[in-house]
Specification:
Chain lengths: 160, 432
């Protein structure tokens, strides 16, 4: 299994930054960057990361189950993450999540039928003072209102 | 044009760590150097390691990640003479609900953090550091990587830094979504490529941390405070705050205030003045109901408890904590049942499952609170929630169990009326 040249370069460097013999340290970063390209954590990807880090696949597999950003099933091309934790909750985060769910017709960790957009109710992502917050893939959006969220989602649909 | 700020600064702030925020290209090495950057490193290279640590002790800086442990003391625990390599690990896994300051410190002033790390390297004889950044902050990982590359290119990182003969390599390391990895020993397991499960202490990370080697592990804000301390002296930093609570810190205020944002104030700043004047007071003329002083794990304060100075010891005196600086303000309309439920949903989700009191405790507390919120509450639930939480307190492997129990105990004790009112409302609905 190979990745894009850019990612291959990144991974080659990644394996050199930890102490000699501690290359399994690269497992978590490697998984999350690879997931961005592959779309999800597949059994083949687990085998590949295990091979590169020099551990049995089982040791990668058990790591996958622990981290909430790693998904075994593909999420949408655009993963819409709405925070409903306390700071967002107080200023409409829960209503925002429900609005998104209704608009997209999907629930927590579900994907639209065309595979383009997925939704997740997420825990605090560090945007508390600019709540309510939404992260689409890795882009933060602050002070999000239902109207602003509609625009964001409609924008995603147009760029498909 | 100055870089866009997330919120307008307040004239009442004391800007030490955030003084470069908003400057044009504040993230560049050139701007950093033109504004006092690397003066502290130049000074530190002339100092003995013990003198650096002594200066940090004098500053009365306490860990800004949440626990508030004296930083200089932590630094002194690292066995400098150990034959093993020593590592610096920066905790940038900012995930405590209510907290969003490390983001700004990395975004606006990455070189201040890098300089703080280098001074730590001089102090403990370390030549390698890792910044563990939460996966959700991908843009900041890329941002820090650019800053690190710039520092390497100009001789501020790598071999023979600025001709001093001191070598230091610095890398970023991405997390992938786990609150528990903010706990320092879980973070170390995570950086080693494992599930982020906390470790038995002792040995403490200072002695056996990353890859079983001595490790200096501090929060982003803690390291970011180091350049100012060394440059202007520990005593000057200490004098900004109150005894044993040195310096300034970045407070993140959110919830029901007119001007939510991140503001830098001295330790000991009056809480009500902060809420009313810096954070702009409560919208719509509503009354203050409660304050979470420093992130979701801190015991909640009722409005009449908030007339206090914000330092670690004053908060401890009234049974709460200054935590990670994430202040959440609740007005009279806040629904405490929903608030307690959301907190417990978080901790139940984030419990690593390693120890039973936390795994089971958070799950049952969540279930009881969910049932209560859904209208199936029972009178005895209020006492049960308190009792279950108290059973967790101090009986879990790491602080996550306490972090879940403390806010719950304080909410059911201080806002029992809110729970009773809910029960009365539910009974009425049944009667109708």
């Amino acid at each position: 299994m190979t990745f894009s040249p850019k990612l291959e370069e990144k991974f080659a460097k990644m394996l050199t930054i930890y102490p000699e013999g501690r290359q399994r340290s690269a497992i978590v970063p490697m998984l999350i960057y690879a997931q961005d390209e592959v779309g999800s954590i597949t059994p083949e990807l687990i085998d590949e990361v295990a091979r590169r880090c020099g551990v049995p696949p089982l040791q990668v597999d058990e790591v996958v189950g622990y981290y909430s950003m790693l998904h075994r099933k593909p999420m949408g091309k655009y993963h819409v993450q709405v925070c409903t934790n306390i700071s967002c909750l107080l200023v409409g985060g829960m209503e925002l999540y429900e609005h998104a769910s209704k608009k997209l017709g999907i629930g927590h960790k579900q994907v639209t039928a065309d595979g383009q957009i997925s939704l997740e109710e997420v825990e605090c992502m560090g945007a508390c003072s600019w709540a309510p917050a939404v992260e689409i893939n890795y882009d933060f959006h602050h002070h999000v209102t239902p109207e602003k969220l509609d625009q964001l989602i409609d924008g995603l649909k147009k760029t498909q | 044009m100055p870089k866009r700020l997330y919120n307008e600064p307040s004239p009442l702030e004391t800007k030490v760590l955030s003084k470069r925020f908003g400057l044009e290209n504040s993230e560049s090495l050139a701007t950093y150097i033109a504004n006092d950057g690397f003066k502290a490193f130049q000074k530190a290279r002339e100092m003995k390691p013990e003198q650096i640590i002594e200066e940090v002790k004098t500053s009365a800086l306490r860990g800004r990640g949440g626990a508030g442990f004296p930083t200089g003391l932590k630094w002194s625990f690292v066995p400098r003479s150990s034959p093993k390599p020593k590592y610096i690990v920066v905790n940038a896994d900012e995930s405590e609900p209510g907290t969003c300051k490390d983001r700004l410190l990395m975004e606006y002033d990455p070189h201040q953090l890098i300089e703080g790390i280098l001074i730590g390297g001089l102090a403990i004889d370390s030549h390698k550091g890792y910044i563990y950044i939460r996966g959700e902050y991908r843009y900041l990982i890329e941002h820090m990587d650019r800053a690190i590359a710039e520092a390497y290119a100009q001789g501020y990182l790598g071999k023979n830094i600025l001709g001093t003969g001191f070598d230091f390599d610095l890398y970023t390391h991405s997390g992938a979504g786990a609150y528990e990895c903010g706990e320092e020993t879980a973070l170390l397991d995570s950086i080693e490529g494992k599930r982020g499960i906390p470790r038995m202490k002792p040995p403490f990370p200072a002695v056996a941390g990353a890859w079983a080697s001595p490790t200096l592990l501090n929060n982003v804000e803690t390291f970011s405070a180091i350049p100012a301390i060394i440059r202007d002296g520990g005593a000057a930093f200490a004098a900004l705050g109150t005894p044993k609570n040195g310096g300034t810190r970045l407070l993140c205020v959110s919830g029901h205030v007119n001007k939510p944002g991140v503001y830098e104030v001295p330790l000991g700043y009056p809480m009500m003045k902060f809420i009313e004047e810096i954070a702009g007071g409560i919208p719509g003329g509503k009354k203050l109901k409660a304050v979470v002083p420093g992130g979701s794990s801190c015991p909640i304060l009722k409005a009449d408890e908030c007339d206090i100075p914000m330092d670690y010891d004053s908060l401890a005196k009234i049974g709460s904590m200054l935590g990670s600086g994430g202040m959440v303000v609740l007005d009279e309309t806040a629904d405490m049942v929903k608030f307690a439920l959301r907190i417990m949903r978080f901790y139940a989700h984030e419990s690593c499952g390693w120890c039973i009191p936390c795994r089971e405790g958070t799950t049952w507390l969540r279930k009881i609170l969910q049932r209560f919120d859904d209208g199936g509450g029972r009178h005895e639930d209020v006492a049960l929630l308190g009792e279950l939480s108290k059973n967790m307190l101090g009986r879990t492997f790491c602080a996550l169990g306490d972090a879940a129990a403390m806010p719950t105990i304080s909410i059911v004790e201080k806002f029992a009326d809110d729970f009773e009112k809910r029960l009365a409302r539910d009974r009425q609905m049944v009667a109708v």
